[in-house]
Amino acid sequence: MRTILSIVLLFFCALTFAQTTITGTVMDNNGLPIPGANIIVTGTSSGNVTDFDGGFTLSTDSNPPFSVQASSVGFSTEVMEVTANNQKLNFVLQEGSILDEVVLSASRTPERIFESPVTVERFGLKEIKNTASADFYDGLENLKGVDVNTNSLTFKSVNTRGFATFANTRFMQLVDGMDNSTPALNFPIGNLVGMIETDVQSVELLPGASSALYGANAFNGILFMRSKSPFDHQGISASFKRGITSQEAAGDNPYTDVGVRIAHKFSDKFAAKVNFGYLKGTDWAATSEVDKIDPTRTRANTNYDGINVYGDEVSTNIRAASGLGFIPDVVVSRTGYNERDLTEYNAQSIKADWGLYYRPIEDNSLEISYVGKVGTGTTIYQGTNRYNIDGFFQQQHKLEVKNDNFFIRGYEVSDKAGDSYDMVFTGININRAWKSDEDWFGDYIARYAEIELSGNPLSLSTQQKHDAARAAADTGRFLPGTPEYKAAFNRSINDPDLSTGSKFQDASKYFHSDANYNFSHLIDIAEIQVGASYRKYNLNSGGTIYTDNDGPIEYSEFGIYTQIQKDFEFNEDMSLKLTASGRFDKSELFDGFFSPRLSAGLTINRDHNIRASIQTGFRNPTTQDLFIGLDAGRAILVGSAPENLDRYVRTFGVSQVGQDQFGQASTVTQTGANAYNNSYSANSVTDFANSGNPALLEVANPDIIKPEQVTSMEIGYRGKFNKLIVDFSTYYNKYKDFISQEVVVAPYYGVAGDNGLSLAAIANGDFQTYSAYTNSEADVNSYGASLGLSTKVFNGFDLSGSYTFTKQDFDSETYPDFQTNFNTPEHKFKASFGHTEVFKNFGFNVAYRFSDDYFWEATFGNGIVPEFHTIDAQLNYKVPSLKSVIKVGATNLTGNEYFTAFGTGFIGSMYYASLTINNL
Length: 920
Hints:
22-stranded antiparallel β-barrel
C-alpha cells in the first residue's frame, strides 16, 4: 500500500512540476522584429516580452492545448494555438494606428481609443522614446488641446480647456492610481517628485470634466501615468542626459538628468522593482523690473512695485502718515530687492520609488502590491507670491489588491516644506531688519518736510524732492553681498513668522482609499461597474499657511459611483456603445452632490466613430479656499470655512488722525470675519481715493464659499481615411457658482455702508486689504474645439498636426472686476514630423508649437503673454548590441525666449545628449 501511495504521489508531483516551453518570434508586416512585445498565455498571468530581435522563450505550467497572445502598442493583437511542448510560434502583427491603441482612463476599463466615449489623448512608449522635448513630461505639451505652463525648469503645470494657474486645483494627476497632488498646496507640482522616464509605460489624458467617475477634483481633466510592471519588463535600464540651459538673464548652465530602473521577476508569483532619478540644473531667472500695476512706471515713481522686485510691496500714504497738509497726498513704497539677489535659481530633483508585487494564485490575475515613493526637490513656485521651494519632500505609500475585475487600494501622501521660503517676504523683512517701516517712512517724510520748510533753496522739482527723501530714508540700507545683508537674509528664511521672517513651513498629509468592481465576468447583459472612495485631510502648517496655530485641521470626504456600458451590434458595419455613469460625493463641510454622465459612440465600417456626451461635474473648495490664513503683503488671504473666519486674528495700528479726531484706540483687532461681514470692494476704494466721491464706494461682504458646478457637452469624431487619421472634438461648458477670489477692504472702525465713520477710516488709511474666497454671481461659459490629423508620408515618415480653439464668455460689463483666471490662448497650433528609422537604426523628430497671445491673470499679477513659436528637435541612433539609444536634441531651437505666465522667468533653450541603456 505504501508503494502504491508513493507512486501516486510521484505521479502528481510530476504533473505539478511539468512545464510546457515554447519559443518564437514576433515580427511586423514588413518582416522587422518587434522588441518589447507582450507574450501571454491566454487567461493566465504567465508571460514574457520579446528581446531586441523579436525573439522570446516562455515556460508555463499549463498543459497543451492552450492559446498564446502576442501584442504590442501600435500593432494588432494576434493569438496562436499551442498543441505540443517545445512548439515554435512565429507571430506577424499588423501595424495599426493610434486609433487601435488601448486606453483605460475613459471608462475605467480597457478599450480602443477609437471606441472611447469621450476625448482621450495617449502618449505611449513610441511617443515617449521619440519625443523632441527634453523629457516625457515636457513632451505632453505636444498633445492636442494640452497646455503646459512653465513655472520653472522643474515645475510645469498641465491643463486643458482653460482656467489655468500654477495652483491648478482643477486638474488631477494620477501615478499608478495615486493622486500626485501635494497635501500642502492641494495641486500637483509637475513631475518634480513623480516618475522617471525609463519606468513609464504609458500616459493618458482626459480633457474636461470627469467627476462622474473620478470625483470632485476631476474638473478640467486628468493626467494618468502608468509605470511598467516588473513581471513584464525586467532587468536594469538607465538613462543619462547631459547638456546646457541657455537664457539671456542666467547665461549658459549645465543640466544633468539621470534615471535608473532595476526590476526582477523572481518567479511567476513574485517580482520587484526600484527606480531612482536625479536632475540638476539652473532655473529660468525672473528679472523683470517692469511695474506690476502700470508698465510705464519706473523706480522713479513713488509707488513703484516691480514684477520681480520684492520689498516694494510695503507702502503708505505719506500725508496720512504724517498728518501734515504740505506733505504730498501720494502713496510711497519702500525700495525693494531684485529676485536674483534672493535666490540662487537652483533646480534639482531627487526621487526614488520601489514596489513589491505578489501573485499568490497561478494562472490568475490576482495581485497584491506595495509601492513606496519619495522625492525631494528645489524649484520656484509662483502663487500669490514667488516662493523658493528648497528641499521640499514628499512621500507616498500604497497598498493595493487587484485582479482583472476589481481593485482595492489605500495610500497616504505627506509632505514637508524643507527650507522653502517666500521671496517677497524675504525682501520685505530684510528691509525691516535694517529699519522698521515706521522709521523708514518717518525718515522719508522728515527729509521731504525739511526741504519744504527750508523754502526749497535748491529749487528742486517734485520728483527731485522725492528722490532726495528716498535717498535719505535708504541711507545705510543693507546691500546684496554684504555681511549685514547675508545675516538678515538667513534670519528671514529661517523664521516662519511673516512679520519678521519668510520661512514656508508645512507637514500636511492626506489618506485616500478607493475601490472598484467590474461585474462583466458575471453579467452578460451589460458591463456594470461600481466603486467608492474616501479621503481624509490633515493640514499642519504651524500657522504659516493655514489657521492651524493650535494644531492640525482635519476634515474628510467620500464618494460612490456606478457605470453601465452596453454595446449594440446592428450589423457587421455598424455598432453603438452607450455609457451611463453617476457619482455621489459628500464633504463633511458641504451638502452632497450627484454627477451623472451619458455618452454614446456610433461606429461605422470600423473606420469611423461619432461620439457625444453630456455630463455634470463639480469641485469642492480646496484646502486653501477653506482654511488659508496668509499675509501675502498687498492683501491677507483668508479662507471662508465658517470656523476659519474667527480663527484668523490680527492686531493693526490706527493712524494718529484716527486716534485724535475720531477717538479710536491706538490699535484694533480684526478677524477673518471682517473680510466677509464688514468690507468694501477694493476697486471701489481705489475709485473713492482717486475721486473723493464716497458714492463710488460699494459694500462687498462676499458670501462664504460653496462647491462650483459645471455642465459639459461634447461631440467628437474619430476616423481613418486610408492613411489619414482624423480626431475632432468640440465642447461647451456652463459653470455655476464659479469659485473666485474677491479683493476687499475692511475698515478698522465704522460699518461698511454707514456713510460716516467707515468713510473716515478709508480716508485715513485705517483699513486692511483682504482676498476673500467666494463664488461669483456671473454666469461663466467656455467653449472650444480641437482637430488632429496624422498620417504617414514619403514611405513611412510620421506627419501630424493639431489646431485648438478655446474661449470663455461672461458678462464683463456687469462684472468688470471679476477675474476667472482663464489664462489660455484662443488659438494653438502644433505639428511634428519624424521617422523612427529613416535608415537603419537612425531616427529623428521635429516638433513645432504656436501659441496665440493671451491675458494672464492671477493673484501674483496680471499681464499680456505675447504669442510665441517654438521648435524642438532630436536625432537618435539605436545600438542593438547594447539595446541602447543615443539621442541629441534641442528645445526652442530658434532661441527666441518666451514665457507662458506673467511674472515667471523667460524660457530659453536647452541642448542635450543622452544615452538610454536596455530600454528599446
